[in-house]
From TrEMBL:
Keywords: Membrane, Transmembrane, Transmembrane helix. This is Uncharacterized protein. Pfam families: DUF7994. The keyword Transmembrane applies. It comes from the Archaea. The chain crosses the membrane at residues 12-32, 38-57, 69-92, 98-119.
Amino acid sequence: MTRKESVRRRLAGGGAVSIAIAGLLVLAVGTPTAPTEVIPFAWLVVSGAALLAAGRLEQLPLGVVTVGWPRVAAVGLAMLSIGSSTLGFGRLFTASSIFGLAQAALALFAALLLALAALECLLGGVGLDEEAFVVE
């Protein structure tokens, strides 16, 4: 398996996991009704769908423009990073125990890793080989 196939397989897996988490949250919490309750679910589903599309499609047609999979992956990872940092900072300001602070630190660390992965996909070949981000 080439490096490109490995990266794309991981992106598809991450997208599927993100969508599955949103579905499990709906089962655990119930169907969201208020607009503020829908945002976390939509965030997970839309970013997961972007990652799944990046992992499965070489190019994504968007109207008259075709976008390569690395750019679609960068958008999905950036969306996950923004959402994770928002939840992390929100938890940081409302935490009343060491457990809450640990949750905030974990969410912010995940946001940092996701942002770095988004930059890697966007720039294509800073830490990984450039061949891993070739669009055919």
